Amino acid sequence: MGERKIIDEIWKKFGENVEYDDCAFVPEEDKYILFTTDFVAEGTHFIHNVNPEILGKFIVAVNLSDIAAMGGIGDYFLLSSFLPGDADFEFLSEVMKSLYFFLKSYGIRYLGGDLKESSIIGFSGFAVGHVEKNKILKRKGAKIGDIIGVSGLLGKNAASYYLWKMGLLSFEEVLKIQPKLEEGRELAGKARIAMDTSDGLISSLYQLQRINKIGFKVDWNSLPLHPLAMEVIEDYDVSLFDLLNFGGEYQLLYSADRKIIGYEIGEVVKEIQDYGGKGYESFSKTLD
Amino acid sequence: MGERKIIDEIWKKFGENVEYDDCAFVPEEDKYILFTTDFVAEGTHFIHNVNPEILGKFIVAVNLSDIAAMGGIGDYFLLSSFLPGDADFEFLSEVMKSLYFFLKSYGIRYLGGDLKESSIIGFSGFAVGHVEKNKILKRKGAKIGDIIGVSGLLGKNAASYYLWKMGLLSFEEVLKIQPKLEEGRELAGKARIAMDTSDGLISSLYQLQRINKIGFKVDWNSLPLHPLAMEVIEDYDVSLFDLLNFGGEYQLLYSADRKIIGYEIGEVVKEIQDYGGKGYESFSKTLD
After folding, report:
1. What is the pLDDT of residue B283?
2. What is the per-residue pLDDT across A243-268, written as a single tens digit (0 to 9) for each?
3. CB contact under 8 A, A37 and B113
4. Residue ranges of chain A with pLDDT lower than 70?
5. How many Å apart are CA B228 and CA B265, to the nearest integer?
6. Closest chain B residue to A17 measured between Cα atoms?
7. What 3-state DSSP class applies to B276?
8. CA B65, CA A166: separation in Å to the nearest integer?
9. Fold of the domain spanning A138-282
10. Are B85 and A6 within 8 A, CB to CB?
11. For the residues of B144-195, what is the DSSP string, one character each?
């Protein structure tokens, strides 16, 4: 059973009618406070002996991506770290240093966290942000006739993964992502809906169709692909579907009455589109 | 290297002069917003096939205990869950149900979270709360002559652990704790300092001495011990020191100019006391 399915089951039981957006949000005067948490673990998201500087930024980026997708501004960050008893303290220290300065570059305060022993290395980030009430970006609210846009070139992280598996690229390239906070602020108050593509484009389209109950029709022939993505399609027989059905990409996907940022990739239509699958599900894949 | 030492090293490097309290806190008009995160994992905090209802409450309680120790009121809760690919969905669902209704009983909103695959079962909770600025309880600020108080009987969880190891009690007794939120509110604005005893009484006293740079002198002969604690001391040759140097107890420890709640156990003095150790460190012990 994939992550989406399990989460759906749990929401159905305990959901209190909360919409399933990138962040939880609660009203506070003229704004919403945004809360989000993301967990990354060795074996699932990164390999042993990964570069700690890149890992530190990755932990931050996956959490801030959710705030970006809501059009928000990041404020605070906490981290739960769990490490084996014989873990390398220098490694942890390097991860923390990178994480700390990366947060600082976005004006976000690191508020500490928790450190516990565990049999694996893992990090659970918790980010807090805010967004003006009239600017929040949710997943529901697309209209037929909207254009569909993405914030940047697609397929880089999936392509990096395949190139790494073939021994042609270092694993760290898979983890190199930038949280799209500036892009999210440009969309805030202007786009009709937004979400990040952390589960891959296919999965995002599938979810947006399910939530909006209308179709998200993408023009597959004119997608803005990253050069690495074009390389693996042309030279290594990886399909476009495989690249777009892959988690770990953190672009923003949006619909609006016009292109606001990035690239226009399709149109919101009446008919639900068949994407031949529900998309990448992190709960049923690991790095093996 | 124990948890305290590693945390100290990291704080020294990236700390921004944040005091090491139970929660991180940030000002917001006339109150502080409180943030805290706590991670619990199979093998470190609970055994395989543990009762899911009790586990759900435990996850909530360890997080809310930190808010209680600051004199705060709980508002929101998020949860990162990580589970093996072949995890039992019914188990997760039972944990969530228990967690959800336990939060609800304290008027705290569950805001969702994250679910990821991992090689072990673990849960990372994030709790958000608040406390009036003039009522916040920190760890620093004790005065010579203050009484030292605890919110309840000591040694129950450690005693339960020893009785479980001897096959005389079910493991679940170790996890049965109540977050002392009401007690924290009674102390708020009245006690001089407070913290929870989640690393055990000895460790808490050690930390309070280090932070306040004065002595916390406890009267060992008149400590309020739980009946189970007295039982293991009398019948099973477990020392008082072992019971009080054990993590997993969640009473509130405070100093004040008079007894406010619970039991008076000593006095704040000029001379630093020798506690024969730095106390339980969760990073250097597991359930084995």
Report:
1. 47
2. 999 888 899 999 999 999 999 999 99
3. yes
4. 1-20, 277-288
5. 19
6. B111
7. coil
8. 49
9. Phosphoribosyl-aminoimidazole Synthetase; Chain A, domain 2 (3.90.650)
10. no
11. TT-EEEESS-B-HHHHHHHHHHTTSS-THHHH-----HHHHHHHTTTSSEEE
For domain B17-134, the CATH class is alpha beta
Radius of gyration of chain A (CA): 19
* Maximum CA extent, chain A: 57
Instruction: Return the percent helix, strand and coil in chain B, to nearest 5.
Output: 35, 25, 40
Q: Where in chain A is the domain with CATH 3.30.1330.10?
A: 22-134
Of all residues in chain B, the one with the smallest CA distance to A103 is B14
Domain ranges in chain B with CATH number 3.30.1330.10: 17-134
Residue B144 has pLDDT above 60, yes or no: yes
Is residue A10 within 8 Å of B95, Cβ to Cβ?
A: no
pLDDT at B5: 64
Q: In whole angstroms, what is the distance from residue B17 CA to residue A199 CA? A: 38
Confidence band of B17 (pLDDT split at 50, 70, 90): very low
pLDDT over 60 at B282, yes or no: no
Probe site for chain B from A80, A103, A120 (most B CB atoms < 10 A): A80
Residues from chain B that touch A5, judged by Cβ atoms under 8 A, are none
Tokens (6 digits) for B42: 């199979």
What type of residue is A10?
Answer: I
- DSSP lists the bridge partners of residue B116 as B82
Residues of chain B with CATH 3.90.650.10: 138-280
Place of tokens 């809906």: A193
Pick the residue of B19, B29, B39 with the most A CBs within 10 A to test the interface with A by mutation: B39
**Length of chain A (residues):** 288
Q: What's the rounded Cα separation, in Å, for the pair B212 and B109?
A: 35
**Residues A131-154 as b or e (16 or more Cβ within 10 Å = b):** beeebbbbbeebeeebbbbbbbbb
pLDDT at B284 over 50: no
> Measured on CA atoms in the order A143, A147, A151, A154, is the torsion positive or negative?
positive
Confidence check: pLDDT of B255 > 50: yes
Least confident of A114-123, A232-241, B53-62, B174-183: A114-123
B61: left (phi over 0), alpha (psi -120 to 50) or beta: alpha
Tens digits of residue pLDDT in B219-242: 998 899 999 999 999 999 899 998
Contact (CB<8Å) B14/A284: no
CATH 3.90.650.10 domain residues, chain A? 138-282
Determine the CATH number of domain A22-134.
Answer: 3.30.1330.10
Do A112 and B43 make contact, defined as CB atoms within 8 angstroms? Answer: no
CATH fold group of domain B138-280: Phosphoribosyl-aminoimidazole Synthetase; Chain A, domain 2 (3.90.650)
